[in-house]
Amino acid sequence: MVHRFFKIAGVAAGAFAVTAFAVNTDLLAPEERPRPLVIAHRGLGQTFSREGLQNDTCTATRIFQPEHPYLENTIEGFKAAFAAGADIVEFDVHPTTDGQFAVFHDWTIDCRTEGTGVTRKQSLADLKKLDIGYGYTADGGKTFPFRGKGAGLIPSLDEVLAAFPDRRFLINIKSNDEREGHLLAARLNTLPPEQRANIMVYGGGKAIDTFKASSPETKVLGTDGAIRCFIRHALLGWSGYVPQDCRQTLFMVPANFAPFIWGYPNRLAARLEDHGSLLVTLGHNNGEKSTTGVDDEQTLRRIPARFNGAIWTNRVDRIGPLVHTPVD
C-alpha cells in the first residue's frame, strides 16, 4: 500500500514537473525583441548610498561624488536620459495650489531646496523660485556642489509634455487624493491621442482609481496588489495563469530573484503583456526595505541580454549604451 502511494506520488510529481517546464520554458516563448526597454527612474540624476535608508531619509545629503551635472526630475535630466538610451522616463508629480502639476519627487521641499513645507501646499510660481540643487552634498555638508545651480529647475508637467511630445513617460501619482486623480486626468485628456498613447500612469489608492475612471484611454498600472500578486503568482504561475492582482500593473522583480519566477523572462513577459502589465527587472534586493535599480554592468549582465520586458535604472548614462550595444 505504501509502495503504491509513493509510486502514484512520484508519477504525479513527474507530471507536474513536465507540465511546469513545458508551460514556462523560454524554448516555447514568443519571438524576442532585439533588446529590453530601458526605464530611466527620475531621468538622469545623482545617486546615493542606500545604507540604512528610511522613508523619510534625505537622500540629497548622501549622494556619491558627482559624475555628471544633472539633477533628477528636470528637463535637462530628461534630455540626458533620452540621449543615453532611455525608452521611457519615469517621473513624479504633485498638484500645486494654483492648479498646476510640479514634477518633483519628495513629499516636502525641505531636503533638496532652501525652502520648507509640503510640496503640494506651494504654488508653481513659488516652487520655481527654489534652488533644487541647494541640499546636495557628498561629504557630509562640507561642500554643496549643486548649490546655486538648480534655481528655477522644477518643471511643470505642461513644460515636460511640451518639451517631449513624442517621448514615452511613466508618471507616478504619489498621493491618495481623489482630487489629484481628477486633475491629472483632465490635463492628460487634452493631449492628442498619439501623445497620450505614450504615457503610462502608476500608483495606488483613491487617486489612481479616480484617474483610471476619469481617463479610460490612458494606460494605468495599479500597485495596490503588488504583494498579493507575488504570492499568488508563486503559487499559481507554474500553470501559466496570471492572477488578477498581476494584471494592469508593474510586475517588478529584483534581478537576484528573477530566475526563480515562473516563466521568467519571456514567457512571463508575454503573459503579463497580454493582461496589460509590464515586466520590469530591478537591481538586487538583499533584504532591504527598498530595491536598487540596475545601475552597473555587473548587475546588467545577470539579466538576459534579450527579453521582452524592461530594465529599471538610476544610471541610464551607464546602462543605456550597454543595452543598445550589448556585449556577448
Automatic annotation (TrEMBL):
Biological-process GO terms, alphabetical: lipid metabolic process
PROSITE patterns: GP_PDE
Keyword Signal on entry: yes
Keyword Signal carried by entry: yes
Source organism, top-level taxon: Bacteria
Signal peptide residue numbers: 1-22
Pfam families in alphabetical order: GDPD
Molecular function GO terms recorded: phosphoric diester hydrolase activity
InterPro entries: GP_PDE_dom (IPR030395), PLC-like_Pdiesterase_TIM-brl (IPR017946)
Gene3D superfamilies for the chain: Phosphatidylinositol (PI) phosphodiesterase
Residues in GP-PDE domain copies: 56-323
Keywords, in A-Z order: Signal
Protein name (database record): Glycerophosphoryl diester phosphodiesterase
Species: Phyllobacterium leguminum
